[in-house]
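Chapter summary example.
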Amino acid sequence: MNNRCFSTKHTVGIATFFFLFMMICFFTVFYFYHQKQVATSNQVLSGILGKLEEKYPELTKEEIIEVLNGNGNFSYDLSEFGIDIQKDAFILQEEDNFSFYVKVFFSVSFCLLVLYFFLLFFFYSRYQKNMRKLISYMESLQQKNYDLKIQENKEGVYSILKNEIYKTTVMLQEMAEESKQDKWRLKNSLSDISHQLKTPLTSISILLDNLLEGREMSEKKRLEFLRFIKRDIFHIQELVQSILTLSRFDADAITFSKSTTSVNDLLVQAIEKVSTLADLKSITISIIGSKDAIINCDVTWQIEAISNILKNCLEHSLEESEIHVSYDDNPCFLKITIQDFGCGISKEELPHIFDRFYQGRNTSKEGVGIGLALAKSIIEHDQGIIRVTSEINHGTTFTILYFYE
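The structure predicted for these 405 residues follows.
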């Protein structure tokens, strides 16, 4: 027996069809049997009329029709043949058979009617029981209980409904888990932002106190403190701007405006944004690649992303070292490789370098830990991916792939 679960509607339909079919069959049998009785009676009557016409030729057709229609006061005593005219059939040998079939017909009809209502009651009760289970399950869902399992491997509308509810449960469970993760990330982000703001604000507060109380402070020292304050304010502005940008990416509130540009020009503009830091450390940044290569992207945002990666490389590079930027394209994607020869990143830190506010052991104190996270978001929003490999004391390599649509 296969595992089929018919819906209540289908069950009622099948039961009704079966009941009507059986009733039609019995009515058909009864009808043909009745026709047989009529034919037999007419045959017997034809024989009687033939005998009468043969024996009493003086009888007219009108008299015979009058008798057959029950008109007139003609009668014949049948008691001498053992026949009760009020109870018995005229053709005695057919009476018992006819009575038997009539009784069988009504008995079977009654049994089928009882069976039909029993099936209706049974399947309706099961339907009600299943509905109560589903209602109880839905109430559990409202209480945020997602541990119940109601998936089915059967067929039928009810099983499909259970499976759809189960899919909804799994989706709600994933959403609840994701919501927990979001709350956890928000808590950590707020903690990191608070920590990032606390240091420059504390520094500014101390410097201002010294400026207010140090009346005999030299002009040179006063200007130095003001430069420190300006540096910390710039640091706060950079942090706030980065956080706002990441928030816009999270909210999908940034629309990329794509255009076709030279890959070499894109990289040159990105290098110009970090040229000051490169000059301070006497680091040379070289570009290797065909000047004919082009890219279709949002130029402004991609310059921001690549410059953030270059800034990270500069911060981890030794003075008077080099950074190699190369690119190559094929029919499927454009690959940009950025390689430094600095201190490298440990295997423990490598999986976290794109996390927001993450700062490794060798990270610059001026960094806010958002640059690489922002670069990754920008690249991925422009249908690209970024990978990183690193080796301690041998440097780090960033690989960016932009796939062609």
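To summarize the output: Residues 1-6 have pLDDT under 50 and may be disordered.
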